[in-house]
Amino acid sequence: MEKKRIAKVSRKTSETDINIEINLDGNGKYDINTGINFFNHMLESFSKHSLIDLNIKAIGDIKIDDHHTVEDVGILLGEGFLEAIDDKKGIKRMSHAMVPMDDSLAIVAVDISGRSYLKTDFSFNNDKIGDMTSDTITHFFESFASSGKVNLNISATGSNDHHKAEAIFKAFAKSLQDACKIEHDTIPSTKGTL
Prior knowledge:
The structure is a single chain. This protein has a single domain, classed as Ribosomal Protein S5, domain 2 (2-Layer Sandwich), CATH 3.30.230.40. It is built from four helices and ten strands. Strands 1-2-4-3 form a four-stranded mixed β-sheet, covered by helices on one side. A hairpin with a 2-residue loop joins strand 5 and strand 6. Pathway: Amino-acid biosynthesis; L-histidine biosynthesis; L-histidine from 5-phospho-alpha-D-ribose 1-diphosphate: step 6/9. GO terms for molecular function: imidazoleglycerol-phosphate dehydratase activity.
């Protein structure tokens, strides 16, 4: 019987109270409420296009701003991913995806390497996209890469901030989905561990 790649993680601080359930072998079902509508939309898009089931409930100090909530969801989602992916036996490990969305094009490459690194090449025209602060998008991926121990390389072009952000999250979804695929029964590393 195959091991289920599922995790439940939670984190409570003076700034946020977050609970996340993740199923890497799901169908893209989601129930997400972060209190930040555009962030919900991005995470829902990620779940749908990665086929990773996500249940995220976040209460944060968004009366101040959205920084702590986005950061802590990124941290906890990375922790949940790391727990669910377990010893990484049999995974494809590395993948990439290119996703267009109207004027925008996003390219994301991922390596589930056990090493944390984020490289980005994109910017936004406006301080906000909907009710989400634009620069928190980079911070979300920093937090996920750090706690999930993955290498992410993300670039995007385009003139419309909404399209650019959504293309990034969809490319992230497709690349992570592919990298998580079980293809064999060994650890994909010459070191024998990831």
